[in-house]
Amino acid sequence: MIKTFGEQGFPGRLIAVEGVDGSGKSTQIYLLKRWLEIQGCKVHLSDWSSSQLVKNATSKGKKRTLLTPTTFSLIHATDFADRYERQVVPLLRAGYLVLCDRYIFTAYARDVVRGCPPDWVRGLYSFAALPDLTFFFKARLETSVNRTLANRPSLKYFEAGMDMNLSTDIEESFRIYQGRLLEQYLAMTMEFGFTEIPADQSVEPQQALMRRLVTDKISLKKFI
What we know:
Oligomer: single chain
CATH class: Alpha Beta
Strand order of the largest sheet: 2-3-1-4-5
CATH superfamily: P-loop containing nucleotide triphosphate hydrolases
Helix content: 40-55%
Number of strands: 5
């Protein structure tokens, strides 16, 4: 059984947010970071697929549509491993609150939907401890899809699942792909004890709920 960072004795704590595109998780984790900073906490935010070590290779592979499901999975696992070892673990050892906009569950959902064996995907990330608190932003599919389409001038190829040949129409492909991801997240909710946030609500009540849940779960005084 994989343990959380707290269960492994780390002085820091890791909070992750998960959800499909347009669920509002990135907005909420940023607002939580600002609030924690105002409280005087030592806090760091880590984004998915942001390692400088593999960023250029990832970008080139996506632009040229060279990534198969396996290479797509491996390159994101490399990105995660680099950030985990160089950024996440050292900060947790130093007693920080580390916030992650997506964690290993993103790979569990995306890679499996693309056809990679679940056990193989999980094996790639078996070195990673579990978050101490994982928020799953549960929004209706149409809500998240409409938010994304309203806020972006155009959809990206992989973001829309076009590599999976779901539809020749990019918006329809996006809807199908996001629906399959949502199914994966719902299946993982009980297994990993996700804390659900009703993401169809407006920003303010979601943030208020997040703050209350974080305060109930974590003693913030230890991080000031």
